[in-house]
Write a structure and sequence with these properties.
357 residues; alpha/beta; 2 domains; 10 strands; 11% strand
């Protein structure tokens, strides 16, 4: 049990360090998750700790085109002279290509300041007529970027951008447009977990830079594998760490049928847990962020609630242990019960020496 997604990432790193001391190699370990977004905090923790890893798809969450598009909108609003972000956002509008975007940026002086009415008016005037109507809605949202509190300013601007132009762009370009729009909403939740938009952009820059450094240093050498459960079908590892085993993520609320049946998710969960030859660790964060910056408690996955208590051992991250200690001493009103010590739960089943969640 961990406090949240970021604590989960730190606990994954600690668990990998323990496994390596026991004699497991990096290539013996796989980190599985329901969708790529679920691994963002863990990926950042691995990168900061210098743990070599590879992603089965070859593309991390922040390297996906639609995520880069939205991150570029945030960069554009935060950094007036960021011509690359400006160009990427402009090219998402009707009748704007690379050359046109470059000319517009030059025409408005090589800088776009969302807090300047003059700068915003100049951009509107420089846009082609087909793009102007869509951007006018986004311009109104960006006008409040500095005055609207974080993360509401980001949420409002991105939602407006979706409504004005980007949702239609996604549907024209991708067959799985709904999934990509869901990624955008998950991205907003990740942004909201930071103290500011600038902090979020620093983390993205750190992650992408460290990703390249780790990939270059790892080469074809041993590395922890990060994979969605779908992409892990047919594969096995001595050790599997399964992230976000909570309701709404695994099972995914979007994948339940109209009657709320979970047959497909249950089959996918079976795939996940049977990828482990020897050890299986399952992580359950207790809190989850929403895109408006608020938090709500996570409920343990129904699949885990069905496991008989005698088949597993339950533990907690260091952060959860500290919260528990403060709660017991009366310094913190934390009402989560059943905490113990070891970072996850464990259970022994046929073919597995150690399950931990």
């Amino acid at each position: 049990m961990t406090a949240d997604g970021h604590d989960q990432g730190r606990e994954v790193v600690r668990r990998i360090e323990d496994l390596r001391r026991e004699g497991f190699g990096l290539g013996d370990i796989a980190i599985l998750y329901r969708s790529h977004f679920n691994a963002v905090e863990t990926q950042l923790a691995l990168a900061r700790a210098g743990v070599p890893y590879r992603i089965t798809s070859g593309t991390g969450f922040y390297e996906q085109a639609h995520v880069k598009d939205v991150v570029s909108l945030v960069r554009m609003a935060e950094t007036p002279a960021d011509g690359l972000a400006f160009s990427r956002v402009m090219q998402l509008l009707p009748a704007v290509g690379p050359a046109t975007a470059e000319r517009i940026f030059e025409k408005i002086g090589g800088s776009f300041d969302v807090s300047s009415e003059e700068s915003r008016r100049a951009l509107l005037g420089a846009l082609p007529a087909k793009a102007r109507a869509a951007w006018a809605q986004v311009d109104a949202a960006l006008a409040d970027w500095k005055s609207r509190p974080f993360p509401k300013n980001v949420e409002f601007a991105v939602e407006t951008f979706l409504d004005a132009a980007y949702r239609e762009q996604l549907r024209r370009q991708y067959e799985n447009a709904d999934e990509r729009e869901e990624d955008v909403r998950q991205l907003l939740s990740d942004i909201a977990s930071r103290d500011s938009a600038a902090d979020f952009l620093r983390d993205v820059a750190l992650l992408t830079n460290l990703d390249r450094e780790i990939a270059a240093s790892a080469g074809n050498g041993p590395a922890v594998l990060l994979s969605t459960v779908h992409q892990a079908k047919g594969l096995e590892w001595p050790v599997v760490l399964l992230l976000w085993t909570v309701e709404g993520i695994f099972p995914s609320s979007r994948s339940l049928d109209e009657e709320g049946r979970d047959d497909e998710e249950r089959r996918l969960f079976y795939v996940a847990v049977t990828r482990a030859k020897d050890r299986l660790y399952m992580f359950q964060p207790t809190m989850r962020r929403t895109q408006d910056g608020s938090s709500f408690p996570c409920e343990r996955s129904r699949f885990l609630r069905e496991v008989p208590a005698e088949l597993y051992e339950e533990g907690e991250s260091d952060e959860m242990g500290e919260r528990h200690a403060r709660a017991q001493s009366g310094r913190l009103g934390w009402d989560g019960g059943g905490w113990s010590r070891d970072g996850g739960w464990g259970r022994s089943l046929p073919g597995l020496h150690d399950w931990s969640f």
